[in-house]
Model the fold of this input.
Amino acid sequence: MNLPLGVVQSFGLRWTVTLCVSMGLLASSGFAQERDSLPGVSLGLVYENQPQPALAIQPFTGRFGGADLVDDVEVIVGRDLRNSDRFEVMDSIPAGLVGDVVDYTLWDRLGAVWLITGQVEGAGEGYILILELHDVVYGQSVERGRFRIPDEADSDFRMAVHRASDELVRWATGDPGMAASRIAFTMTDNQGNKDIYVIDSDGENLDRITNYRDLTLSPTWSPDGNKIAFTSYKSELPRIYELDLRTGKENMLPEVRGGGDYITPTYHPDGTTLAFAVTGNARSGIFTYNVERNCCLVFLSGGRWYDLSPTYSPDGQWMAFNTNRFGDAVPQVMLMPSRGGDAETLSPYEYGGRGYFTAPDWSPVGDMVAFHGSINRGTYHILVASVSNDGRRLNQLTWEGNNEDPSWAPDGRHLAFVGERRWGFGLFVVDVATGRLRPLLAGRRVGLPDWSPALSAER
Amino acid sequence: MIVRHFFIAVTAATLVVGSCGGDPPPPPPAPPGPDMDSLRAYQDSVQEAEEEARRLAAEEAARRAEEAARERARQGAARTLVQMVFFDYDMSEIRDDAASALRAKVDILRASPQVQLRIEGHADERGSTEYNLALGNRRAVAMRDFLTGFGLSESRFSVVSFGEERPLESGSDESAWSRNRRGQFVITAGENAINPGN
Done:
């Protein structure tokens, strides 16, 4: 779980919080001892100040019947590469630079570091997209790949192109992109009811997933991207359901003796187990249930207080969660071993302070936990805490309006969240490394986004 | 009775008129004189029946008034049972005004053992969607614990949170928020067996 921590260099605003209380709490845990010497928490901007490499896209060409959709494919790839926030995508391409011939000298003079060329060929059923990444500085081809894409009318068309874009990002940076993914979230209708919707990472293909016209919320993707679990009041009381997106089959998780509200489900990275919170039971707190074997309800943590909103580390060993154990008005984010045990505070809790921190989401690739909160009861902002061994930092990613419920993209670099602005609510995407912000869906009453894993072709 | 007097008067008049004609017809046999005893008995029985009817009507009216008063009291008690209580921002503690509102429910619940309540906790729109579900539940449990603290059985209550999802007021200011941070009550059993108590 080593993340290139270069991306979290703090500079600019620096704010230090002493973690005396949490340090006391974690004295007995081995996990915590490793972190005993941490200097504290700094709150600041994270943004890289080094420029991104310039990337040019030579207009794609179509052959053997591929000309029909070549423009659409090129537009999708170009947008995906921009959305990856890893390049300065060059906008104006000289008209002369068309065709399959690559003039490295000319591209070099134009300032390009990377160059993408592409051809689309008809292939009986569907098409083949041939993409090539060129290193302009060294004047050579770096990678070349063939991607099968279906006809434009096929529902997988855009996702197939996104998967090709993600490979381009991987060729150039070593890390896959996140274009081939979707974001589940809630939308509220005029009656105040919530249902679950899904939208592609580039803001296209808005689909309605549930239609209960009741309260249905907290969607969460299974690690294979085939299921969404959520809480719904559709049978009067809040219960957790698992919906298979391929078959439409739906299962309700069994109830613990003694009733209570079943909220905030999340999957273990191995996909076998759901963790969730039960509140209002004699035993309130975080439980796990094995959904693969339909058994084994396990109580993890809680008690007189409520622990909720669990989220697993990518190796499944740790869990971050929200708790009200310090008081109803000062919810905090804590960490504990995923089988339960001593917990330590991750959010900058200060005894007697008014900090309010909720909605944690652990990065699928690194030692970072995003959550939202407010230091002193002002507006809510997206915060990212690094939990790596070489120091703990807390970084603020938003500065305008209210910002809530961050969810990591599969690239571990982008976050989707709900932004409240003067004009209303919207889903936004922020790049943790550059701070670049992009609206995904604006002007609707949206909430609780959950970013899918990378969606493979098998779906 | 009036008809009866009239008949007697007419009979007497006929006798008088008949006696002053020309040739007196042979006097008809004298009709039998009214049996004054049975007439009186009859009159008495009628009077009694009327008095009985009046008494019954008064009793019925009293019974109805009592029933109406009982129903009013029952409805009043039902209103007391579902009277909302309100909370401070981000708190699940029972305020003084909430304590009196809850205390008023205790006597009714004690006198109405068949009544069961669902206690709903609500939060205002500020803060996190998911955390507000937990906060609403904390409020519902605080209200239930207050009630069971008076010896009422926990089995008579169920709790559920609606978080910030079902506001009473739609505004985004303190006057709306203060009305939205609340407990609501639904009578889920024994609605017709509500006894207002003393």
